[in-house]
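Write out structure tokens for Protein N-terminal glutamine amidohydrolase.
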Amino acid sequence: MEIQREDCTYTASYCNENVWWLCDSVKKKFPEEIQYCYCVYISNEQRATPIWKQKASHQQDGQVVWDYHVIFLYQTSASGTLVYDLDTTLTFPCDLKQYYEEAIKDNKSLKPEYHRMFRVIPATEYLKIFASDRLHMLTPDGRWKAPPPPYPPIKTEECSDNLQEFISMEGNGHGVVLGLSECLNRFLNS
């Protein structure tokens, strides 16, 4: 499955929608591969999630503390697991082991409140159920925190916004919530 960064729909600070469009692109261009694809929300109870090697960073190591971040995983037996992160300065795609070592890093170096959790949702499910009205991107006085994408918000027939269900790292909701070691075991050792 060959996807180039420049061929992806991208808007800075809208990683949830960027990944939705990536899922949609894979479903259309590589329908036989969509079953190996996952959308992964990275967050924690405090919604303070450090990720390194990010384009939005103003630090030398590329660290950003996001309230949440979303990446796309493609898992095959032939190539292992690849990470597609449109916000990273690492390669696109990037091998999961390298992405872990350089962008996620081990929890041991972090205070417990910064430990990350991972909500893993099959791409086919994400395409069917994700919706965001983008209101979370408005300041209290109604200004955009970051310019919105030029296309309309993503919604389903039943819902115009369920973003918080994905960001929440409580066990209920869509997909499955995993700790860092569980996530690595699932995608590195399969």
